[in-house]
C-alpha cells in the first residue's frame, strides 16, 4: 500500500516592512503593494513520491535501496532529490498541475526525522503557471497524528507567502518506499501585477553597458 498523507497548507502574506533608504534598498508601501487587498485561493492536489517502478520521481543521492524507517542508525544522513508530480486525482495518469522539486534528508541519529526543502512548481496552463510555493522544515515521518512544516515564501502570484503545511500519514509501502500525499491548500497573496508595478516603478533598470561591467 502507498503512504497516504492528508495535508493542509495555509499561506499568508508577510507584512511589508519599511526599511531605511540605502543605495541598494528602497522603502515599500503596504498600501501600494495592495497588501490590504489580498487574494484568497483554495487548491488541492496529490503529490507522488516514487522511489521505484517505471516512473521514478525521486532518487537517493548518497545511498541505495529503500528507506527502512525503523533502522534509524542506517538512515542518518541519507539525502533524496525529487521532481515529483502534483495531480488532480490519486492516479498518476490524471491531470498534472505541477511538481514538487527539491530534496529531503534524514537529520536525526535516533528517529526517522526528515528535514525537507522543496518548491511546489505550478505548470498548468492557468493563472498559477510559473508560480511557486516554498516549504522548508522538519517532518517527523513516523509521528502519530497531524504533522506540520512551515511555508517560507513563494514567487509569482504567491509572492510574500508564508504559512504551514499539515500532513497526516494513512499508509506506507515499506518495501519500495513509494508515497502518495494529498494536499489541501489555502493561500493569501498579492497580484503579480501590483508587485511588479511597484517594484519596477521605483528601481532603475540597468542598461546593457552596466550589465556588461557587472
From TrEMBL:
A Gene Ontology biological process term: phenylpropanoid biosynthetic process
Gene3D superfamilies: Allene oxide cyclase-like
Domain of life (superkingdom): Eukaryota
GO cellular component: apoplast
Compartment(s) where it occurs, according to its Swiss-Prot or TrEMBL record: Secreted, Extracellular space, Apoplast
Coiled-coil intervals, chain numbering: none
Keywords: Apoplast, Secreted
InterPro entries: Allene_oxi_cyc_Dirigent (IPR044859), Dirigent (IPR004265)
Subunit description: Homodimer.
Family: Belongs to the plant dirigent protein family.
Its biological purpose: Dirigent proteins impart stereoselectivity on the phenoxy radical-coupling reaction, yielding optically active lignans from two molecules of coniferyl alcohol in the biosynthesis of lignans, flavonolignans, and alkaloids and thus plays a central role in plant secondary metabolism.
Protein name (database record): Dirigent protein
Organism the protein comes from: Linum tenue
UniProt lineage: Eukaryota, Viridiplantae, Streptophyta, Embryophyta, Tracheophyta
